[in-house]
Design goal:
This protein has helices spanning 5-36, 40-44, 58-65, 67-98, 106-118, 123-132, 150-161, 165-173, 178-189, 191-207, 210-215, 224-234, 245-287. The protein has 289 residues and is mainly α. The longest helix has 43 residues, at 245-287. It starts with a helix and ends with a helix. Keywords: Cell membrane, Membrane, Transmembrane, Transmembrane helix, Transport. It comes from Paenibacillus silvestris.
Length: 289
């Protein structure tokens, strides 16, 4: 297919605009990255733009040696891994029956699920429920209140409906149970949708901090985002930088940048492995049904 000169110019212009917007989106991240590798003096004097000044690893060394950072990183990692596994498992177990026409009452159950997307109990009632269930100030407060997402249930249900019924009928003739059909046939075929909702849940768990502020009083249960919030907003850090107060104030700026980069990299590493499933999963799961 041949393009006219005007169409080629239009394509080049569109690519240039996309490139410019991409650079604008990356600019803050690159700036913080440069700050994290720069000296304390260079950061505070405003010399750092997009390249490190007086390159040093000192900020990262002090951040990774901090016990509070290590504990918060561990909590966030456990929450993300366990929470994502629980979310995906419960979503699959709920969405699969809703995709079957022979299940009685499935439309009413689906209506109740969709209803929660428009109306919810609110922050204070949810807090009271969490407290009455004994989840307050416990790790389970991160996992159970948001164990199922109505939006992701609908995506999985629509995807399950796209699986050919002939495959399930053949497996049932061969003596396969409903559980066997689900785990041996449906789940392997639904990996794009499962990877999509897993990415949604993983990012949500990793970035979440508000539930920790509401439901957790023990600082040992604070996730990484609460640690960053305390460090950035209130300059609260347990890192022993120096006895000199002036240098300590200078150091906090570099520590902020290093902590931000350290908290961002893990989720950036996971995303490329799921990217190939992402577009296909969200597209099929949103238009089927």
């Amino acid at each position: 297919m041949r393009f006219s000169r005007q169409e080629k110019i239009g394509h080049l212009w569109n690519h240039a605009l996309l490139g410019a917007f991409s650079l604008l989106a990356l600019a803050p991240f690159v700036h913080i990255l440069a700050q994290s590798f720069s000296s304390y003096r260079a950061v505070m004097s405003g010399e750092v733009s997009f390249l490190p000044v007086e390159f040093t690893w000192e900020a990262y060394g002090k951040v990774f040696e901090d016990n509070a950072f290590q504990q918060a990183f561990l909590v966030s990692t456990l929450r993300t891994v366990l929470g994502t596994c629980l979310n995906v498992l419960l979503t699959v177990l709920l969405a699969y029956p809703l995709a079957k026409s022979y299940i009685k009452g499935r439309h009413f159950i689906l209506f109740l699920i969709v209803f929660t997307m428009m109306f919810n109990g609110g922050m204070i009632p949810t807090y009271l429920i969490v407290k009455e269930l004994g989840l307050y100030n416990s790790f389970w407060a991160f996992l159970l209140p948001g164990a199922i997402s109505a939006f992701n249930v609908i995506i999985m249900r629509n995807f399950f409906q796209s699986v050919p019924t002939e495959l399930e009928e053949s497996a049932r003739i061969d003596g396969c149970s409903n559980q066997g059909i689900l785990y041996r046939i449906v789940v392997p075929l639904s990996l794009p949708a499962i990877a999509t909702i897993a990415l949604f849940h993983a990012v949500a768990h990793w970035n979440s901090f508000f539930d920790a502020v509401l439901y957790v009083a023990d600082s040992k249960l604070n996730p990484l985002q609460v640690y960053l919030r305390n460090l950035i907003q209130a300059n609260v850090t347990t890192i022993n930088v120096t006895d000199n107060l002036e240098k300590q104030l200078l150091a906090v700026e570099s520590l902020k940048a290093a902590a931000l980069i350290a908290s961002t990299v893990p989720i950036l590493i996971v995303y490329p492995f799921l990217q190939k499933y992402f577009v296909k999963g969200i597209l099929i799961g949103s238009v089927k049904g």
